[in-house]
Amino acid sequence: LGYSYFFDANKEDDLSSLHKSFLVADYGEIELRTNKKCFHAGRAINQIRKIGTGHYLIDFSKEVVGHLDLEFVSKTKQHILITYAEHKENNSLVYKIGSRDFSIDYIAKPGQNKFLDTFRRIGLRYMEIFCQDDIDIFYFGINEVRYPFEEIKYKIEDPLVKKIYDTCVYTLWCCYHEHYEDCPWREQCLYTMDSLMQALAGSVCFENNEQIKSSLKLISQDFRKDKLLSICSPSSSNLTIPSFSLFYFQTVEFYLKKTNDLEFVRSIYPKLKDILEAFLSNYKDGLVYTFDKQGTWNFYEWSNGLDGGLMQKQVKKADLILNCLFVISLRSFIAISKSIGKQTNLEYIFEENKKAARKEFFFNGYFKMSKDNELLSQYGNALAILAGYSNDDESKFIAKELTNENTLFVKATLVTKPFLYDALLKVSPLYKEYILKDIKKVYGKMLDEGATTFYETELGYKDFDNAGSLCHGWSSMPIFYFSRFGLLK
User: Fold this and answer.
1) 117-157 residue pLDDT tens
2) What phi-psi label fits residue 308: left (phi over 0), alpha (psi between -120 and 50 degrees) or beta?
3) Among 94, 112, 146, which residue terminates a domain?
4) Residue 18 domain-assigned?
5) Which pTM does this prediction carry?
6) Is residue 204 part of a domain?
7) First CA to last CA across the chain, in angstroms?
């Protein structure tokens, strides 16, 4: 439905027919999801401040996600513009960002107005409303929508760890409804990279498994002729991020280890084979090459040199990150295959790829981005350690630079820090203290800024031309490491 819509309370719903704008299509069989139904948790508490005639600013004191819920009295029929955002500037909201319009037009009827929109879920912290005349407000805000997670409770001694933990958990609550969502404010989309992070983090604080299965099932039903996954699921977009397709293998392996649900994994195994075939078709002389067809976006993370140049011509080349992710995902595929009694005969690729990758990317003790690109990144070098491209001594040398405050590497962003942490822990468990310190520094700063959920990137709303999300599921990963380090009792 987009970000914005129009509703006129003066008109009755015509339930006798469908409007010509209503799309009717036959998509075949309807399949019930394995996850549970969401529920209304109630009206979110807020504070309403009158700015001027018919002008109100509403603060919910935290990120809230749900359905628009209104109950007020209007003296006349009048237009009300309802805007929403995750932050405010100078006591006002910026609700138009590029082509995005985070607003709702509501035509109030004279007298009492009661409206609950259950068709469009929105995420926000603030609302600003512009009426033509004053209204008498009983409630103006959000009826929160929650998934019925069974939350695991822990005793946490460190106050900052507890605050970060609680905020991560609330971020996860806000980023799951029908499926995993990258964020509740801007997109609400199911991405495979985001889903991996949310599944790993969610396994620490929630008993549930069905939400992982439901999202994996939904992704498996995506279809493209090139066998890659669409940028998100479901989607009619022609756009794909090839590297994101590889995270699907890791999430499936995680789910299988957690549940031993062999029957389900067998049912989606053909999709795993299709995705792998897409990458094997780009495998030559021991290396996987990036994709350059129209609709491809070779994105890795939101940092200089690694964002893939959306809407720019993509180039076919062998690069470090895609090859590392391919190897890691191939490991997952082989493990999954063995679990369900399937033979792959693909183990030969590991040594073949390692030899070619070291020749192509190993440069002065570190791993560069590609043969013709000497870019060095924390993400790429962390993945090289995890992929097994470096020996023990080389990994120790790389780890020193990975933890250098003034590193020459392009620094990892919030979404790729887990790979940095995993690589360091592979080198030595002694890096636990560095990781904990880094989490406290990065996430503590967000808390100091007043965050009630964790950001998409460390820049917060200022990123992406002021379109940065302040509630992003992939940023909930600290709790995975808190659990790993025994901080949750």
Assistant:
1) 998 999 999 999 999 999 999 999 999 999 999 999 999 99
2) left
3) 146
4) no
5) 0.94
6) yes
7) 43
